[in-house]
């Protein structure tokens, strides 16, 4: 596959590990501006000296000793929007050391009014539209798959919720039964604790007398024979 990259990207030294962002971020610009007006701009064989243009731009921007120029404001605004706060030189270095940066258009901007350049731009645009269409389709399929998975998980959760509801009702019934039994035991205990000793003795002797009387009656019944009825 041919390599159509003319302006070699600037790769931060911490990009591979994600740097301060914890993930790899690619910063994609539009184009470079050049006053040379080379008809064969973008030809790697004829203009190898220009292939490091992107890297040189970032080196100049990150060099605190380089005089500030108007074009640098674009980088300042971008980096501050990326982190959501004002940036100083130390933060600036951390940001750009964490990303990879290059421009989408691989020829300088001064020559895009001619027919050939417009054809190149249309080619880039068509390629970008195809990539966008593929990305949208892939994203749609991915969402559909995850929605199906989510529906399955939701059904499992609903079944589990129903089971938990049934178990909760059984637990509440058991709790009610135990509380009733506890109240009964406490009532019996209270009744026993509150009785007078005299009442207990009377009840005991009444029960004892009833027991002995039943034994006496049973013994008399057992001693009867047929002769007693003749």
What's this, in brief?
The chain is mainly alpha-helical. 60% of the residues lie in helices and 5% in strands. The N and C termini lie far apart (132 Å).
What does this structure look like?
The protein is mostly helical and 230 residues long. Helices cover 60% and strands 5% of the residues. The protein contains five helices and three strands; from the N terminus they run ββαααβαα. It has helices spanning 53-62, 72-83, 89-97, 115-194, 197-223; strands at residues 10-11, 25-29, 99-103. The chain has a three-stranded mixed beta sheet with strand order 1-3-2. It is rod-shaped. The relative contact order is 0.09.
Task: Give the helices and strands, then pairings.
Elements: E1 10-11, E2 25-29, H1 53-62, H2 72-83, H3 89-97, E3 99-103, H4 115-194, H5 197-223
Parallel strand pairs: 2-3
Antiparallel strand pairs: 1-3
What's the total number of strands? 3
Note poorly predicted spans: none
Order of helices and strands: EEHHHEHH
Biggest β-sheet: count, sense, barrel?
A: 3 strands, mixed
Estimated helix fraction: 55-70%
Percentage of β-strand residues: 5-15%
Overall 3D shape: rod-shaped
In angstroms, what separates the terminal alpha carbons? 132 Å
Strand order of the largest sheet: 1-3-2
Helix count, DSSP H or I runs of 4 or more residues: 5
Structural class estimated from helices and strands: mainly alpha
């Amino acid at each position: 596959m041919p390599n159509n990259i003319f302006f070699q990207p600037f790769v931060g030294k911490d990009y591979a590990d994600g740097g301060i962002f914890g993930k790899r971020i690619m910063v994609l610009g539009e184009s470079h501006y050049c006053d040379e007006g080379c008809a064969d701009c973008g030809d790697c064989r004829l203009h190898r000296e220009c292939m490091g243009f992107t890297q040189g731009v970032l080196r100049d921007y990150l060099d605190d000793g380089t005089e500030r120029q108007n074009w640098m404001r674009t980088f300042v605004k971008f980096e501050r929007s990326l982190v959501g706060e004002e940036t100083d030189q130390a933060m600036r270095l951390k940001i750009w050391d964490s990303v990879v940066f290059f421009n989408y258009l691989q020829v300088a901007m001064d020559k895009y009014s001619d027919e050939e350049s417009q054809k190149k731009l249309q080619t880039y645009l068509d390629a970008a539209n195809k990539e966008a269409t593929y990305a949208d389709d892939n994203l749609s399929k991915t969402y559909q798959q995850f929605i199906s998975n989510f529906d399955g998980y939701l059904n499992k959760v609903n079944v589990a919720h129903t089971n938990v509801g049934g178990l909760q009702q059984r637990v509440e019934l058991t709790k009610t039964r135990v509380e009733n039994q506890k109240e009964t035991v406490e009532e019996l205990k209270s009744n026993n604790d509150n009785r007078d000793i005299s009442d207990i003795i009377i009840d005991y002797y009444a029960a004892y007398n009833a027991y002995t009387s039943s034994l006496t009656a049973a013994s008399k019944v057992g001693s009867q024979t047929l002769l007693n009825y003749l």
